[in-house]
Each structure stands twice: as structure tokens, then as C-alpha cells.
Amino acid sequence: MILHVLISAGIGLRVLMRRPATGVALAWILFVVTLPFGGAAVYLIIGERRLDPWRAKRLLMQHDDFRDLCDAMIADGLTAVDWSRHTTAVRGMDRLGRHASGSPTVHGSTIELLSDTQAIFRRLAQDIEAAETSLLMEFYIWDEGGAAGDILEAVIRAAGRGVACRLLIDALGARPWWRGAQPKRLRDAGVELRMALPVGLFRTIVGRTDLRLHRKIAVIDGRVAWTGSMNLVDPRFFKRDAGVGQWVDAMTRIEGAAVAPLTAIVTGDWMVEAGEKLPELMANVGLNHVTQKGDADVQVIPSGPGAAGNALLQMLLAIINAAERELVITTPYLIPDDSLLWALRGAAGRGVKVRLILPEKVDSILTRYASRSYYEDLLGAGIDIHFYRGGLLHTKSLMVDERLAMFGTVNFDMRSLWLNYEVALFIYDPGFAASLHALQRHYLAQSERLEPKAWAARSLSTRFIEDALRLAAPLL
Question: Which residue in the list 143, 170, 221, 297 is annotated as catalytic?
Fold first, then answer.
């Protein structure tokens, strides 16, 4: 009993000193007190965004390297944005992004939005085949089968002709792939391949192992970059037994100024895992100044435990608050924290037409029920919820007034916002916003609107399951 009291007091003091939200703090203290020893163990494993000391030190260094690499790659004039083209809200977002993540808005990019998975694979493979100096890639999942194999073969051929290939693949997201034969084939071909955020018993003790690299980025020759929601998986073969249909994704192909910050992100992640120093890495992969191509203004925001903090959450709140007429969001998983929930309700309250497009079925029953616990609050605020019926809609996007957009890897859930390493493009360009809006309307055409009266008629037992699983929302 004395030991339990001492442990509870110690954990309670630790919770208070870390200053989480009041409800979170009280819930953890109550959990630790009422579940002797086990409660304390659970808190130490998942109660904090805890990094092992080695990684925390590397991430602090990465933050400085990110700024240095941006300075090295962004030629003079690329940050000279004509702010007369934008609203005061956009200028504020630029300042917020600079302060929170060190990433400035850059001028002079072309951004092509692609939503046909097979076409994406073909175009990405063509870019890799055209690589002359370097290939930098990081993805959450790589799965054998179908068109994903075309990317593998293209990378092997690139390494064979002397292209410096560095690939970073998440240890947990791609666990089945790591156990197969393809990683050895890549290494035998001369590809530098690393496992991002390795897991194991020791790593569980010194830091959380459910913090994952969820980014999807490919950079070819420091000239062309890709990012978006799609992993290196062919939906015709991936998770065919999950009962949710094929995964539906979209990607952006980028040339011009925005390639520089994306290169800086994937390079920084590589240095954290491989220990390679910035000067030797830049020399080895032949990174040079990026020049302008196109007219779009783009701000690239990385996020994740460590130096990036809550930059992405702050930027999402800012772009939602910038909406005046229309706000459309697509996300596979909707488990917002309180600040996002209130921002969405506030937008609807001030007259903005807010639409959420969600997949009718998702691949996690726990996430499905936890997400549904928020629908009543959203419907009550006048927000439209549409269920997409063409498969598991995996595109993560936000469009404001057909002039601003967010597009990237981040889901509108607490795991993406607090536990995963993500990347998002904030695109201040009416042309891209219109393209994204057209894609969202395509999704809407294959969706069914959730009727508030029908939703209110669900059973009491269903409501109980939803509300119970909402308590686990930060982990889903």
C-alpha cells in the first residue's frame, strides 16, 4: 500500500508538471490511483509523447538542419511572396508556420493533383527512371504485389546506373514487407535502405514505440517531389479481405520552389535514422538550389513529437478559421481533439457551409465507433456528413472557399495530430483549390448524406459503445 501511494503520488506529480488538458490529467491520475501498479505501467508506456533520449537529441539537431537545408536549397527570391494576392488570414498563417515549424511560404511551384492510383504509379516510376543524381523516399507502408513492384524495379534500375538512392520505410507500418525478400533485393542493388522508428522491448522501455513515420514523400534529383495520402501499395491487392473495398487515394506531383522544404524534411528524417551529417549527405546526393517553376505559393508543414510540436494542429485551426463561405474536408479517420471540434462547429456557426466526406467503412472497428461518437455534435452544429461508398476513401484534404487548400498525409484524428510524423502542404493558390474542389465533388457524387433524424434513432447500446470507445480516441 505504501509503495502504491508513493508511485501514485510520483505519477500524479509528473502528470501535473507536464500540464496536459485538465480532463486528461484527471483521467490519468484516477486511472493510476484505482489500478495499483498496472495503471502506472500503462501511463509510462502510452501516457506521454515520450522519445528515447537519443532520438530526442537527434530531432533537436534535425530542427536546425531543416532550417539550414532550406537556406541552402531555396534560392534568393523564392520566399518573396506577393502578399497583395492574399488575404490577411493567409499572411497570418505564413507567420504562424514560420514560428511553429521554421518553414516559410515559398513562391513559384506547379502542383499537379492525381487521383488515379495506377496513373500515379506510372508517373512516379517514370520520374524514378529519369533520375540522374538522387532519389530520396520515405513511406509508411510498402506492400508487395501489383504496381508497387514497378516502383521497386525502377529504384533498383536507378541504383544500377549510379543514382544515390536513400529509402526510409516505417518499421511497423511495413512490417510484413520488411520480412519479405524485397528489402534484400534493394540492398543488394546498392540502395541505402533504413527502417524508420524501429521497435523492440528496449525501445519500449526508453520511449514510446507507437510513434510512427506516417509521411509519404519522394524527391527525385531535388527537382520533382511527390506527396499525399498514398502508400506504396496497389489497392487491387492490398487488404483485400478487410471488407472495405479498395483504398482511394490522391497524390501531388510538384516542381519548383516547394520541392526544397519537402527535400529538407525527408533528408532530416534520413539523418535521424542513419546518423549521416548534413554536409556529406548534400554532397553524396547532389542537392542544389531549387528554382521557381509555376506561380503557386506553398507552405510545407512537418509535424510530430519533438521539435515540430503542434505546428500542424495550429495551422489546421488557422485555415479552418479563415473559411468564409465553404469548407470541405476528406479524411478516412475523424477523431478530432476538442480544439478541432470547436473550430469546425464555430465555422458552421458563423455561416460557413461545412461538409465532411468520410468512408462508409473503415478498416478498424474501434476507430469506426469512436469516430461516430462525434457525429451528433457535428450534425447539431449544422455540419453535413457524407459517407463515401466507392471504397476506403483515404485522401486527406481540406478546401476553403476555392482559394486555399491543405493536402497531405494527416488524418483528422488525434493520432495523426499528436503521435505520428506527418507532412502537409498549405497551398495558397485558387487554381489548385479549384482542382481539389473538383475531386471532392467527384467523391460527393459517390457519397450519401447522413440524415440527422436517422442518426438520432440509433440504439442506446450503439451510443454506449461509441461513447466508451471515445475514451480511447487518442490511441486509435
Answer: 221
